[in-house]
Design a protein that fits this description.
This protein is mainly beta. It has 2 domains: 336 residues, Glycosyl hydrolase domain, family 43 (Tachylectin-2, Chain A, 5 Propeller); 132 residues, Exo-inulinase, domain 1 (Jelly Rolls, Sandwich), CATH 2.60.120.560. The protein contains 2 helices and 35 strands. The structure holds beta-D-fructofuranose (FRU).
């Protein structure tokens, strides 16, 4: 085994040795009640999302025995209802010549009752020193198939760096399929040799042969690399989600180390496509590499990585043996020029007793729980603040329309993020033991962040003497895990 490869047998042996460590991880009070987390080690991007034979399969980048996320395999959980879950064995291992330094991110495609997983095989040459950007790295487009989502076929390497256009650096990865007008396209994220982030689009002749269609990017360079592209049509609009790296900060915008957002795409793939301006998908600290899929109810569901690569601070769960989580599933819709994210309806089954508050008592409204869903509907805007943890506040300034999330020590290095809203109508907070997902105006603006409360829990309190509105909240029950 080299430092970054891992066969199934090596995984199984190490997992046995890790049983005790996983027991320790389970006891951490910062473990989340209704989110997907690694049972030990590191998790990043959601991968291969699909609903197949009535089962939702959620795979994810997983580094089970290493808190820094160095070895990348595909972890796996399943559910039928997003409330009861099963932890499955990992399915995909970095164990062949084409993915020896990581079974990187990829996606699922269902065809003729079979699953096709396209992913990136990462290889780093070690015979001499390389920059690993322009040389010394292979990004191979790989395929594995499956009849059930658990057992995968042998791996096939479909495209290698020399198959991508000459202008590309060695960073070309994260395949995702796009279907339009009966044709299927493969979309890859990339970095050109002149450090321009872009996507590559290939027409698929069949499920294993491609012809290069185009390189799509912005007229002016917008970051040096775009990761995890996801191109889809939704409610009459074509949308490209991508994660650009290297975008300079502009006042309040682009404050995270890397960005995640979407371009509205004009035109038609059979003719010309153009990217319009980039809009942030989530204004919080911990949101990256989301992936979408369409389920049997025809919902476009998004799940993101509730984390971020190369963060300039340490997550305090590391010393407790684990790091990162996935967001709750969110259903996407598009209207009025914006993408909206709505927590998936199935989560309502986790709700406990309903509580509601009157407008007159708004100034001292408290929620004692830490794991809850709460919606505040605003009838008359005013400046206010909501304390959500000892040292975490959300604030709204009615004059500037600025909504901000302020984290003190409980942010563990996270500070302030904000967005300017057209108006404030509704705030829905999904609070878990160590995370917050805040949906504003029915999901037009979202703030996702991890939060690590160090002292006893401070109840939520809403303070704004001129504010008028109502509040409804439910304690949330945890996900059920079956073996
Ligand atoms: C995004 C990403 C992908 C890559 C994967 C590796 O977070 O860097 O581009 O495929 O993670 O884990």
């Amino acid at each position: 085994m080299n430092a970054l490869s891992m066969t199934k047998a090596e995984y199984e042996q190490k997992a046995r040795q890790f049983a005790k460590e996983r027991e320790r991880v389970k006891k951490d009070p910062w473990r989340l009640a209704y989110h997907i987390m690694p049972d030990s080690g590191w998790l990043n991007d959601p991968n291969g999302l699909c609903q197949f034979h009535d089962i939702y399969h959620i795979y994810y980048q997983y580094s089970p025995f290493d808190i820094e996320g160095k070895v990348k395999l595909w972890g796996h959980v399943t559910t039928k209802d997003f409330c009861t879950w099963k932890q499955e064995e990992p399915v995909l291992f970095p164990d062949c010549r084409y993915d020896l330094r990581g079974a990187y991110s990829g996606s699922a495609y269902i065809h003729n009752d079979q699953l096709y997983f396209y992913y990136t095989g990462n290889v780093k040459l070690t015979d001499r020193a390389y920059d690993y950007i322009y040389e010394g790295r292979e990004h191979n487009t790989m395929l594995v198939t499956s009849k059930d989502g658990y057992l995968l076929s042998d791996k096939k390497c479909l495209m290698r760096n020399e198959d991508y256009p000459d202008c590309m650096s060695k960073h070309v990865r994260d395949p995702k399929l796009y279907e339009h007008n009966g044709k299927t396209y493969l979309v890859l994220g990339g970095r050109t040799k002149s450090d321009q982030g872009c996507v590559l689009i290939y027409q698929m002749k069949d499920l294993i042969h491609f012809s290069f269609d185009r390189l799509l990017t912005t007229p002016q360079t917008f970051g040096y690399m775009w990761e995890c592209p996801d191109l889809f049509d939704l409610d009459g609009q074509t949308i490209l989600i991508a994660c650009p790296q290297g975008v300079p900060q502009e006042a309040d915008r682009y404050q995270n180390v890397y960005q995640c957002g979407y371009f509205l795409v004009s035109g038609d793939i059979e003719h010309s496509l153009e990217l319009e301006s980039f809009q942030t998908l989530d204004y919080g600290f911990d949101f990256y590499a989301p992936q979408t899929f369409v389920d049997q109810q025809n919902r476009r569901i998004l799940i993101g990585w509730m984390g971020m690569p190369d963060i300039p601070y340490d997550n305090p769960t590391c010393e407790r043996g684990w790091q990162h989580a996935l967001t709750i599933p969110r259903v996407l819709s598009y209207h009025d020029g914006m993408l909206y994210q709505t927590p998936i309806a199935e989560l309502k089954a986790l709700r406990g007793e309903k509580h509601s508050g009157s407008v007159a008592r708004f100034n001292d409204y408290h929620i004692l729980e830490r794991v809850y869903e709460c919606t505040i509907t605003i009838e008359q805007e005013a400046s206010f603040s909501i304390q959500v943890r000892n040292e975490v506040y959300m604030k709204y300034d009615v004059d500037t329309k600025r909504f901000s999330l302020h984290m003190g020590a409980d942010g563990s290095g996270r500070t302030v993020r904000s967005a300017i809203l057209p108006s404030l109508e509704r705030i829905t907070i999904y609070s878990d033991t160590s995370s917050l997902e805040v949906f504003i105006n029915d999901g037009a603006y979202v703030f996702t962040t991890r939060v690590y409360e160090k002292q006893a829990h401070t109840p939520l309190s809403i303070n704004g003497k001129d504010l008028q509105g109502s509040v409804v909240w439910y304690k949330m029950n945890p996900y059920q895990w079956k073996s």
